Every structure is written in C-alpha cells, then in structure tokens.
Amino acid sequence: MGLGDAILGALFGVASASAKTFPPPCVMGDESIMSKKAHGTSAVPVQGSLRWDCDGKTADRICNFNRHYAEYSGYWEGTSFLQEMGGGADGGGGPSAPIRFYDSNTGKLLFEAPKGRTWEEFVRESKSHGWPSFRDQEVEWDNVRVLPNGETVSADGTHLGHNLPDRKGSRYCINLVSIAGRPVEASGGNTGGAEL
C-alpha cells in the first residue's frame, strides 16, 4: 500500500483505496479467510464421498491446497452431473427445481441454480466458459465471499473459483469439485471426510 492509499485509508476508514470491490449483493472477504488451518486453508478435508463422481484427491488439492488453479476446463462435463440432473449429456431438459450445491469440505449450502434463468441457459453459459457459472441470485451469501482479486471462497476457507464479471454482471466460475459436497444433514453431521 502506497502513501496515497495510507492517507486515503486513514481519512476515509478503508484498508486500501486501490482494493477492488464488486457490486452488491456480492459479499467481500479478506485474506484472513484463507489463512492456514488444520487442513490447508480449511479446518477439515473434503468429504469422503462427493456427488457426481467427483474425484476426492482432485477436490482436496483444489479446495484446500490451492489459491489460483482449477480443475481442467470441461471437467464437470465428464462427471455424472448432467446425467444425474436429468439433462442428459447435452444438458437438455434438466431438473424441475434448482439444484443445491454444497461445500465439498463442510457440506454448507453455497449455490442454488438455476435461478432467474432456465436450466438450458445455465448449462450453455457453463459450457461456454468451461466451468459451472453462477450469477449473484444463485449465490448463498451467508457462506460465500469474494476476495479483492476476484477469488471466490467459502466463508470457511474452501477455494471455489473466481468472479469473472462480464457484460451481464458478476459471473462466478466455480470448480465442480469444490461444490460437490453432501449437505450436513445428509452426511449425518460429519462435516469432513477422511484424509485423502
């Protein structure tokens, strides 16, 4: 932080005048969320059995020991996600209600989609970018934060992906392995799996 930022921060009560923010309803977080914990950036490892046949080792690496990298582009299309959600491999049809996506570490609700658009629009946008892509209305803001560099994380320290805004607004490009958890209720209260 330069002298100008320090002066502006002191005058206006902000940490840095150059810190990037994203428009509401986005909830900003700070680097402390991603501080070292018992298991990388999280207190617990990924759950033992992730949804949609997501690979646990890949999930653990991306969720807990990573700040910048992602599953490969299109990974989510190679899982059982589209088939299980009733959309077939081409994404047509889709579920009758929004799908809930849970933190692969804690089982907390992070996203619910589609909302404010069709299943086909959700799949088309996700396919065009290579990762599941969510919009503001699909984010559970009690449990999700965006850091000033755009990194999107859970409030518990799980790396999820990045906010990559486009002409429609904020677009959260998220790793499926990070949101393939089972809800806490369904996992019997177990918020973490065995070490992988």
Structure description:
With 196 residues, this protein is of the alpha+beta class. It has helices at residues 3-12, 56-64, 81-84, 119-129, and strands at residues 99-102, 109-113, 133-134, 144-146, 151-154, 159-163, 172-174. A hairpin with an 8-residue loop joins strand 6 (159-163) and strand 7 (172-174). A five-stranded antiparallel beta sheet has the order 3-7-6-5-4. Strands 1-2 form a two-stranded antiparallel ribbon. It is globular and about 40 Å long.
Write the layout of secondary structure elements.
Elements: H1 3-12, H2 56-64, H3 81-84, E1 99-102, E2 109-113, H4 119-129, E3 133-134, E4 144-146, E5 151-154, E6 159-163, E7 172-174
Antiparallel strand pairs: 1-2, 3-7, 4-5, 5-6, 6-7
What gyration radius follows from the Cα positions, in whole Å?
17 Å
Major sheet characteristics: 5 strands, antiparallel
The overall pLDDT, averaged over residues, is 86
* Number of beta strands: 7
Please, how many helices?
A: 4
Percentage beta strand: 5-15%
Query: Structural class, please?
Result: alpha+beta
| Assembly state of the chains shown | single chain
Order of helices and strands: HHHEEHEEEEE
How many angstroms does the end-to-end distance come to?
39 Å
Question: Which residues form runs of ≥5 with pLDDT under 50?
Answer: 1-17, 189-196
Helix amount = 10-25%
Query: For the largest beta sheet, what order do the strands appear in spatially?
Result: 3-7-6-5-4
Overall geometry: globular
Task: Give a summary of the structure in a few sentences.
By secondary structure, the protein is of the alpha+beta class. It is 17% helix and 13% strand. The strands form 2 sheets. It has a 5-stranded antiparallel β-sheet.
